[in-house]
Amino acid sequence: MISVSTLLCDHAAGGNRLRYDVDTGGADPVSTEPQRKPVVVWNTTNRCNLKCVHCYAGAKSTPEPDELSTAEAKRLLTQLADYGAPVVLFSGGEPLVREDLTELVAHAADSGIRPVLSTNGTLLTAERARELKAAGLAYAGISVDGLADRNDEFRGVDGAFEAAVEGIETCLDVGLKTGLRYTVTGQNVEDLPGVVDLLRDIGLDRFCFYHLAYSGRGADLSDIDLTDDQRRSVVRYICDRTVSAHERGDDMETLLVGNYADAAYLVEYAREEFGEEAAQRVYNRLERNGGDPAGERVAAVDCLGNVHLTQFWRSYSLGNVRDRPFDAIWEDESNPLLSALRDRPATLDGECADCQYKEVCRGGSRLRALASGEGLFSPDPTCYLTDEERARGAPMETPAD
User: Fold this and answer.
1) How does pLDDT run along the chain (401 residues), one tens digit per residue?
2) Do 141 and 115 contact (CB within 8 A), yes or no?
3) SS percent in the chain: helix, strand, coil, step 5
4) Can you name the residues that pair with 208 across neighbouring β-strands?
């Protein structure tokens, strides 16, 4: 994740301690020791009550046979806590279809790992939200992908938009920190400002904007992905809106997810809007963040216990937690793919190898590079930087933060 509000506006938010080795001040400053153990996405089930056309998990209406049991899930959560993973993200499918979700959230919290939730929001009753909050759930990210008609078309179920918005309102009513998850494509990009307006008006203050993942059913949707011009326009809009909000005293938190060309663009934006010193400050923070996190600061475990490089890279498994503990799998650098990913940017090919932003991007998505057919370390086809920007890169001076 790339925190636009922190990088451009010095917004102090809880997740910053996982991203930037810099103290922005405020009630919840970031840590001076950046987190290097991975945030772990656990896809708790492959069952879902919706039929989203872009679902990276390829979720279905029925669970996979032999999904992790409650006892196995608790054992996994204990392993993650003992290893030092800072956060476990309960995802799916739809995690709320698991009857033991509250019990598992409580086990994670009691074990010392921060539990957060990724959900479509349609099953979040007031009772369920209160139970999850009491169990220790720290945050719920709720997916909306357009205004009502567009969202329901994407989600494959009429009424999904209304139910998701009600889920957001329910979480806010019970005092559970909540945010938007919006996957931006060519089909819903026009709805983005309207969704932000609507949800900001009901009190939401955290907005995560995702680029399309070429995984699951999303692998067949590259034709509806944003064009390069649209990507630049969307990121520009998010930057402008964030800066404008903070200038008015509105602590709106905004994040970009899934395309580390955005990191380079934020440096360019800071240079254009605020000058070279601001651009250097943004670059320094992004460099400490380390760029695309696949295989290092993000890990995933699917509903059957297979460990993946990210939640999107489901075609390749590093091992299974039923056979070996998570830490033994994740630390096994005898795996050539794991070792090569951790050696970026040295392994990058093509224009990425010469790009002056490779230290803050690390080549972007290796999964999209594979999908392009050009090879694992070829350029991410969704990079939208110009040749001039790739050559310019970091500012020349390095003032202290």
Assistant:
1) 999 999 999 987 655 444 444 444 444 334 445 567 999 999 999 999 998 888 877 888 888 999 999 999 999 999 999 999 999 999 999 999 999 999 999 999 999 999 999 999 999 999 999 999 999 999 999 999 999 999 999 899 999 999 999 999 999 999 999 999 999 999 999 999 999 999 999 999 999 999 988 877 776 777 889 999 999 999 999 999 999 999 999 999 999 999 999 999 999 999 999 999 999 999 999 998 888 999 999 999 999 999 999 998 888 999 999 999 999 999 998 999 999 999 998 999 999 999 999 999 999 998 888 888 888 999 999 999 999 999 987 776 554 45
2) no
3) 45, 15, 45
4) 181, 255
Rg from Cα positions in the chain? 20
Q: Which of 36, 39, 43 is nearest to 306 (CA)?
A: 43
**Cα 91 to Cα 314: distance, rounded to the nearest angstrom:** 14
The whole-angstrom separation of Cα 249 and Cα 304 is 46
Q: Tokens 């772990």 — which residue?
A: 40
* Separation of alpha carbons 43 and 94, rounded Å: 9
Q: Are 120 and 165 in contact (CB under 8 A)?
A: no
State both tokens at 13: 């938010």
Backbone angles phi, psi at 313, to 5 degrees: -95, 70
Q: Is this structure's pTM higher than 0.85?
A: yes
DSSP-assigned letters across all residues of 49-75: SS--TT-TT--BSSPPTTPPPHHHHHH
Residues 101 and 52 sit within 8 Å (Cβ to Cβ): no
Our measurement of the distance from residue 37's CA atom to the centroid of its chain's CA atoms, rounded to an integer in Å, reads 16
Beta bridge partners of 88: 40, 115
